[in-house]
Amino acid sequence: MDEKSSSTIDDIFDRYLDAETSIFKNREVLSPHYVPDILPHRDDKFEELAKILAPALRGGAPSNIFIYGTTGTGKTAVTKQVLAKLKERAESRKLAFKYSYMNCQHVDTKYRVLTQLCDDIGIDVPFTGLHFDVIYQKFRDALDDLDTLHVTVLDEVDMLYRKSTESLYVLTRMNSDLKDSKISIIGITNDVNFKETLDPRIRSSLSEEEIVFSPYTAEQLNDILTQRANVAFQKGILEFGVINLCAAVGAQQHGDARRSLDLLRVASELAERNSDETVTEIHVRKAQQVIERNTVIEVLSSLPIQTKAVLQSIFIGEGRSEEITTGDVCEIYSKICKLVKLDKLTDRRVGDLINELDMLGIVTAQVISKGRYGRSKRIHLTVPHKQVREVLENDFRLSKIFDMDEI
Q1: Residues 65 and 205 occupy one common structural domain
Q2: Between the CA of residue 275 and those of 11, 52, 103, 204, 242, what are the distances in Å?
């Protein structure tokens, strides 16, 4: 780092430290990981979940539970609060009770599920290397030794099932192998049709109850934001209309409280970086653009390599012609696979990946008739080219394609 850069960074830090007023009093309450003590407009869900889990306080095993609802409707927060309270009450009654929480975006195989369960009850097992049956036996024996009820929370359970159907089957059948302990499952998902996709063997052994979380209304989101804002900000920082605007945007996004809170947080951070004394609706509008850009980048970055290769084919095709079809994409994709030594998928599978990109809103794929030559699809990118290129250039396998003339 040269002297000029170092001086600029010091100036930024000095301005921040010397600011007469701070926008935030406690910025942590706007974090997506923060769970408030009071969750407005979810009393009925607290009661519903507590009633299902209450038998645990008399040594019984509660039913398995599936919790449905769109993103940001309080499913995870309610579940964590009720289980924490249940654990507290069980301990006061000298009852053995344990629970595990795992996000299935990260814990997405049966091996990882079992290793985390072992870790949560104090059994040390390697992250890799042991046969699954060995891990299973270790957990089963250790749980039986504890003579306890164990509740396993699988957040975004549909992601786990999509990648590893056997994981859910193993957990639903585990009670038949336990002698002195019991295990109950709470599955949380955004997919209201998830149960219909389950293997009949799993569905028959679940015996689950269901709780559905409806989206928040704009008025309810306003209450949630007001509650957090009173703790998060110094007095008089938010201009009139800021909370209403953040709540309205969240209501448009299927009643997503997380979206509204993110919007309020980012808007406030933009005001802070600008050394502005108040947070205005202009900051909220700018925050919307920042969040939407970050969401697109996150979605694109998480795509599998084959899907990225198809996306790159569309990107290159659009750079050459105003209109590209499935055939054009397959032709460019074939050349990319050859250049980066990627296994080439069939044209039909490439078509499936284009459909997936269409469902994600990254491209539009409109069916067109070519007369006696059959039908094809006219494909068009719906996200900014700059963001697509940025993501593809960050993939070491695909970045070099932009410097080649063979495509």
Answers
A1: yes
A2: 13, 50, 37, 59, 18
392: DSSP letter: H
Q: What is the pLDDT of residue 407?
A: 66
**Do residues 82 and 50 touch, judged by C-beta distance below 8 A?**
yes
Angle, helices 385-393 vs 305-320, to 10°: value is 130
Closest Cα partner for 250 from 291, 280, 278, 282?
291
DSSP letter for 127, please: S
Question: Is the four-CA dihedral 397, 402, 403, 406 of positive or negative sign?
Answer: positive
DSSP state of 238: B
Note whether 53 and 194 are same-domain residues.
Answer: yes
Instruction: State in Å, rounded, how far the first CA of the chain is from the last one.
Output: 38
pLDDT digits (tens, 9 = 90+) for 143-191: 999 999 999 999 999 888 888 888 888 898 898 899 999 999 999 998 8
User: Residue 285 belongs to a domain with what CATH number?
Assistant: 1.10.8.60
Q: Which two tokens stand for residue 137?
A: 């036996």
Q: What is the mean pLDDT of residues 73-100?
A: 93
In a domain, 362, yes or no: yes
Q: Is residue 13 part of a domain?
A: no
The Cα 157–Cα 175 span in angstroms is 19
Please count the structural domains in the chain.
3
Residue 211 · residue 42 · CB < 8 Å = no
Is residue 76 a part of any domain in this protein? yes
Per-residue pLDDT, 372: 62
Mean pLDDT of 298-312: 91
Closest alpha carbon to 300 in 316, 289, 312: 312
Task: Give me the mean pLDDT over the 356-372 stretch.
Answer: 81
pTM of the shown model: 0.72
In a domain, 1, yes or no: no
